[in-house]
Amino acid sequence: MQLYLTTYGTFLHIKKGMFEVRIPGDDGPEKKKVPPQKVTTIVMDRGTSLTWEVVKTALQHNIDIVFTEGDGAPIGRVWHSKLGSTTRIRKRQLEASLNAESVEWIKQWIVQKIENQVDLLKTLKKHRKTKRPRIDETIEKLDGIINKVQRLEGETITDIDGTIRGLEGTAGRAYFKLLSELLVGKYQFQGRSSRPAEDAFNAFLNYAYGILYSRIERCVMIAGLDPYVGFLHRDDYNKTSFVFDFIEPYRPYADYAVFKLFSGKRVNQDHTREIKNGVGLTKPGKKMIVKAFVQHFDEETIRYRGKNQTRINAIQQDAHTVANKLIES
C-alpha cells in the first residue's frame, strides 16, 4: 500500500515496530498504525514530517519515501542504494535511445496513450446519448491520428520527434476539449494548464499526475530501467526523462479518476482554493483525489493479458516487458 501524508502537521514515527501516523484534528490527533510489511511507498506533502527511525525502517523494508510539492508534483525520493537488476538493462536502454528502437517504443507508447483516451471516451459515451455524435466525431479524429503515428518512420528519434509531438498535441487538444464539454458549465475549462492550474479540473488533474509520476518512477526502477535515459524527452541534468516517456499511456487512467469526481458531483468549492496566478487544492481536495486515485489504480481490477489485476500491477508488468525486450533484442 501507499502511505500518503497530505495533511499539514501530520507526523510519522515508529512505535513498537509499527509506523504510526498522527494527523492533527480539532479534537486531538488522529492516530493510525500500519506495519512496514504492508507499505510500498511513503508519500509526503508539504508541512508533514517523520523521524530518523522511519527512514531507517523504510530502507530496511525496501520502502521508498517520496517528497512532493503542494500540487502533488514529486521533487525527490529516498531509495535504497542497491540496484534492482542487472546493469545490462541500463546499457541496452542507452543503446536503444540512440537508434531506431527508440522510435518504435515511442510510437507504441503514444499510440497506446491515444487508444486509452479513445477507450475512456467510449466509456463516457454509454451514458450520454445526446453527446454521442460529438463523442464519435472526436473518436474518429483520434483514430486518424493513431494511423498517422503508426506510419511514422525514422532511424533515430530526432527524425520524428517534431512530427510525433505535433500529432500528440493535436490529439490532446481534441480530447480535453471534449472532456470539458462533457462537464457541467461551472467546471468546464480551456485546455490543459499546469503549475499553476487555471481551474478546478486541472488542479485535480495536476495532483493526480503528480501521484502517477511517483508511481511510474517506482515501476521503472523496480524493472531495472534507468529513469534518466529518455527516448523522446531530452536528457537534461537531473531530469527523469524516461519516466516522462513511459508515463504517457497511463495518463488517461488518471484522467478518468478525476473526471468521475466531477461528473459524480463530488467536487465543491471547499476542495479548491485560489493561489498565486491559479487554483490549488485544499486538504479535503487532496484527500479526495488520493482516495480516488488509490481506488482506481490499486483496488479496482481490469482484464489485462488474460488475467484480472489492478492497473498498477499491469503498469509494473509493462515496465518489466520493456526491460525484458531490451535485453532479448
Question: What features would you describe in this structure?
Answer:
It is built from 10 helices and 12 strands. The chain has 329 residues and is an alpha/beta fold. It folds into 2 domains: 77 residues, Ribosomal Protein L15, Chain: K, domain 2; 242 residues, CRISPR-associated endonuclease Cas1, C-terminal domain (Four Helix Bundle (Hemerythrin (Met), subunit A)), CATH 1.20.120. The strands form 4 sheets. A 4-stranded mixed β-sheet has the order 1-5-7-8, with helices on both faces. Strands 4-3-2-6 form a 4-stranded mixed β-sheet. The chain starts with a strand and ends with a helix. The model has no long low-confidence stretch (mean pLDDT 91).
Q: What's the story with the biggest beta sheet?
A: 4 strands, mixed
CATH topology of the largest domain: Four Helix Bundle (Hemerythrin (Met), subunit A)
H-E order: EEEEEEHEEHHHHHHHEEHEEH
Strand arrangement across the biggest beta sheet: 1-5-7-8
Count every helix, treating DSSP H or I runs of 4 or more residues as helices.
10
Strand content: 15-25%
The oligomeric status of these chains comes to single chain
Please state the second-level CATH architecture of the largest domain: Up-down Bundle
Q: What class do helices, strands and sheet pairing give?
A: alpha/beta
Report the strand count. Answer: 12
CATH homologous superfamily descriptor of the largest domain = CRISPR-associated endonuclease Cas1, C-terminal domain
Fraction of helical residues = 40-55%
